[in-house]
């Protein structure tokens, strides 16, 4: 027990000061709240008004429930009666987060009165004034909060610029930042902070003006040149922007941030193939930035570069921790498409251990099991889905197709497909299955209408084309079948197993 008590004391000493103070207030408040009321005692609402500790307790309980708006409002009610600067600071930040400017204003003013030398108190006061539209007062508070040392001043201005990127702030944030930057005329960092803020708030003209002032003094400033390239792109001066990017890349070809910005610029001008070259080189060089990796996944998928998309996705998992459900689903599907079936199944197995009722993951595993020739496992997954979701059209169609195509259970399979068609009559995959079931039932004329419709909807999907061609072949229209197959082969830009097997089997 003694060691446990010491351990608790140790952890308490590590908590921020305001947390320890709030802890004491909460205990006292709970004691007060739990004390029995005498019959003539003042009602709870009135006693709470006279007891700041009870309000603080209520506010922190609201925070624990995720009710930040309520917490900020409660702190604001007792702003003038609190004497602990750190607790007031806590309330001011909460009210600011909740966008409760009246409460934040009262708390910030109280904070400054209790801690007149606190730069953070003045910054919060400035943010409140800016929210309230008093830009002159905001500038004054921000300037008062700046340190006198030039290096520290530049860093503080940069941090302020980041805070002013908050989209909830009014457009006047730019003019406030311009005034703050003007207070450091010899600084290169201040106009760069203004330029970054201007780009974040979609004011590229202001950004360009700011970086030009830096480049007039230091033409080699890479930070200013990169912002200039971004600003030129935003101003639709693409030729100048790309020239600026290429000049920078010639000097620093291994700069990851620069290549990423260049790739983004290429994407913005629909030059995705060139952008993908940049992303590929970044991946090969070991890039780990999550935004870069996510962008690579998206572009690679669009371009049909499954291997690159998978590499970026797996790098994302290695550097950023466990993937989201959506990313796991994508990884498993990519591995299946790349015929890495054992790895695909491993991804789905692990994902389903944590999410056994996830229909999309289970359906994806069923498809991977079928691809790995585990028909029993695939059927089991689909039947599990239909047990819990009997009207799921994808599962109905997939199981029906397998029964019709691979097991000879044509009657049961066709019934499942027809049920799927009733639910989703516009799905090309289900329409294709309807046609294939009719063909397997010996009704090629009925099958043809379904398959022609599905083929038209999907613009030469190779598997649908294989089915349509086989029905045309059975109806004696062999030239038409060959035309359908060859067009689909050309559109697929590579071998498709179902299409190739059908052509080899029928048209040797």
TrEMBL record:
What Gene3D superfamilies would the database entry show?
Tetratricopeptide repeat domain
Organism superkingdom: Bacteria
The name under which this protein is listed is Uncharacterized protein
Keyword terms of this UniProt record = Repeat, TPR repeat
Please name the InterPro entries in this protein's record. CellSynth/LPSAsmb/PSIAsmb, TPR-like_helical_dom_sf, TPR_rpt
PANTHER family xref list: TETRATRICOPEPTIDE TPR_2 REPEAT PROTEIN (PTHR45586:SF14), TPR REPEAT-CONTAINING PROTEIN PA4667 (PTHR45586)
Q: Where are the TPR repeats?
A: 119-152, 325-358
